[in-house]
Amino acid sequence: MAVTDTEQIAFWEPHPGGQLKIIGNGKNMTLAYSRIQPGSEIPEHKHPHEQLGYCLEGEARYQIGEKTFDVKKGYSIIIPANMIHSAKIIGKQEFVSIEAFSPPRPDLVRGKFAPEKF
């Protein structure tokens, strides 16, 4: 059990135009806060983690497998494990989201929640 002041956790850049910070990391999931600049892209990739996202601000066009989805404030999205996906930020404001991954994503964790500190 833990309570964390996530304002004290630094962002890092997983790809150009994107900032990410892990705001929770447990035995079964990782929770991330992400903000991505307009016009930026998340390159096509896949990972063995189920991903659930919730958009707080902005708009993005996701490519998940063969399907395309526009996601904006108030929308949630589920990306199955091992599914190829990418996104492009559309519109004029940054895209801000909360992303949950299961199982945990040690490759994304920095600082307070790094595996050696958990």
List keywords for this structure.
118 residues, mainly beta, Jelly Rolls, five-stranded antiparallel sheet, four-stranded antiparallel sheet, 9 strands
Structural class: mainly beta
Q: For the record, give the distance between the C-alpha atoms at the N and C termini, rounded to a whole number.
A: 11 Å
- List how many beta strands DSSP finds: 9
Tally of individual helices: 0
Fill in the CATH topology.
Jelly Rolls
Q: Report the portion of residues in β strands.
A: over 45%
The CATH architecture name reads Sandwich
Can you walk through the features of this model?
The structure is a single chain. The chain has 118 residues and is mostly beta strands. The protein has a single domain (11-117), classed as Jelly Rolls, CATH 2.60.120. Helix content is 0%, strand content 49%. The chain is built from no helices and nine strands. The protein is globular and about 35 Å long. The termini are close together. The mean pLDDT is 91.
Brief account:
With 118 residues, the protein is an all-beta fold.
Task: Describe the secondary-structure layout.
Blueprint: E1 18-25, E2 30-36, E3 41-45, E4 50-57, E5 59-64, E6 67-72, E7 76-79, E8 85-90, E9 95-102
Antiparallel strand pairs: 1-2, 2-9, 3-8, 4-7, 4-9, 5-6, 5-8
